[in-house]
Here is the input.
Amino acid sequence: MQLIYQSYYFSSKQKNKIILISRFMYQLLRSILFCFHPEQVHYFSMNVLKAICNTGLGRWCVQQLFKPDDQPIQVAGLHFRNPVGLAAGFDKNASYLHALDMLGFSHVEIGTVTPLPQAGNEKPRLFRLKKDNALINRMGFNNEGVDVVNQHLLAWRKKHPQSTLIVGGNIGKNKVTPNEEAWKDYLLCFETLYDAVDYFTVNVSSPNTPGLRALQDVEALEVILQKLSDALRARKIQKPVFLKIAPDMNEADALAAAALVARLQLTGMIISNTTISRNNLKTPASTLERIGAGGLSGMPLKNRAQQLLKVIATSYGNRLVLVGSGGIFTTDDARERMEAGARLIQIWTSFVYAGPSVIKNILRK
Here is the structure.
C-alpha cells in the first residue's frame, strides 16, 4: 500500500511511463472485450469502473492515471474544469457520474431522458465498425424514465456535494408520444430535472426514434423551444439550454434552426448527433447491410460535423455558444473544432476505442 501511494511523488518521466503502460494494458483489455457484444461490454466495463471508484485506493489510482490537470474555462455562465465532456447516450440513467468524474470529464450529459421509462429498440442495437473507428447504434432512448433519473441525480449530488462535474440533461420524447404532443414530453422532463442538472440539451436529432427528426423542421421545432423558453423565463435561476442537431441537415435548415435558437435567446447548439449516412466507409457493404439501420458515430462523422460547425459559427458564432461533437479522437481534432468556433467539445466513440486516457491525451497539448 505504501509503495503504491509513493507513486504520487514519481517524476513526470516516471508518470509518463505509467501512462504508457496503462495505455498498452487498455489496448490488450480492449482486444479481449471486443470479442463480446458491445452493449454487454459497455455495462460490464462501467460497472467495474464504478466499483473501483467506490474504494479509496481505486479512486486514487484512477485519478492518478487518467485525470488531467485542470484547464478551466467559463462557458454560458458555468465553470468547466476543462473543455472535454462526455456526450449523451453513455450514461443514460445518471448511474456512473462518480466514476466519470474521477476520469476527468468536465461535463457529462445524461440521457436521453424521456418522461416514461422505455426499453428502447430490440437487441442487438449497438455495433462496432472497427475498421472505421466507428459505432452504429439504434438504442431508441432506452432509459428508466425522468423520475428515476432525477432521483439518481439528487442522490449523487447529496453524496458528492464538492464535485465540480457539470451535468447536462439531454431530454427527448417517448416513442408512443405523437409529434404534435412532443412539446409536453420535453416540458415535463425540463421541469422535473430543473433543480438537478446544470444545463439542458433538446434532442430532436436522434435517428432511432421513428419520426423524431421531423421535429427539426423549424415550425415543429419552434413549438417545443418556445414552450421551453417560456418555462425558462419563469424561473428565478436561468440555466443554459442547447439544441442538438443532426449532421444530415442541409446547411439552410441548420441555419434556420440556429436563427430560431438565437431569436428565442436560448444558449446555443451542439453539433452534431449521429448520421444515417454510410458513405466512404471501410467496413464492407455486406456487413453494413447485415447491421441495418442506426446512427453512425465516430471517425467517419468528423468532417461533416466540422463543416456544419463552421457554417453555423460563421453566421451565429457571436450569438450562440457552440459545442463540437462527432469524430473527435485527438488533440488536433479538438483544436480544429475549437478553432472553428466551438467553446466546448464532447466525445463518445473515441472513449470506447481509445479508453479512459483519451481525455488526458486530448488535453495534453
User: Anything to note?
Assistant: Residues 12-33 form the longest helix (22 residues). Residues 2-363 form a domain with the TIM Barrel fold (CATH 3.20.20.70). The radius of gyration is 20 Å.
